[in-house]
Design a protein that fits this description.
Length: 218
Amino acid sequence: MSVSAFRRSIPLLAAGSAVAAVLVTAALTPRDPTSPAAATSVAAAHTVTDAKPLLGAELAASARQAVASEQAEAAAVKAKAAAAARTAYENSATGKTAALRAAGVPCDIHAVACVSLSKQEAWLMRGGKVVYGPVRVATGRAGLPTPAGDFHVFYKVVNGWSTTYDAPMPYSVYFYRGDAFHEDPVTVRSHGCIHLSLHNAQYFYRFLGCGDLVEIRD
């Protein structure tokens, strides 16, 4: 570069340095807090700061709701499983037997006719459930007791007759030798048979069939 050219560039360099200095000074100089621009920046900063607690509360509420929803779903699944287990138990032989015992029935689920000698009561059953009874009965007297045990109906006759005692036995349902369910006063002990009122004797006669299990318990 010639000496003349260098001399001409000196003012330009000086001017550039002055502009740069002004720009740097402006950047480093703190803004007037009362200016509109400064107020806008401060407001924006406060908005962000104020939003943080609100956002945290919303997240916490959302988390609580999610936990509550999961707990409710788990409780519903547990309740459904418990109900299914109860149904399965109630339909099982053990469950049905337990239900019979709770109802005061001394027989198992296979019985069709059940008799309690101690209670002087009888029931009719199907599928392990009571469908009729208890009804009052009169069983054998001292010296001629009705036998306890498991028996099966082997004969039925509407107008039965006792040849041993020469007496009528209406609606007889025989289950053991000469012993039968039949109509007779339930206030009088029998000679081994099971006395029923007329209405109940008719019902037992219609309900029971040959081969049905009769359980007689003490």
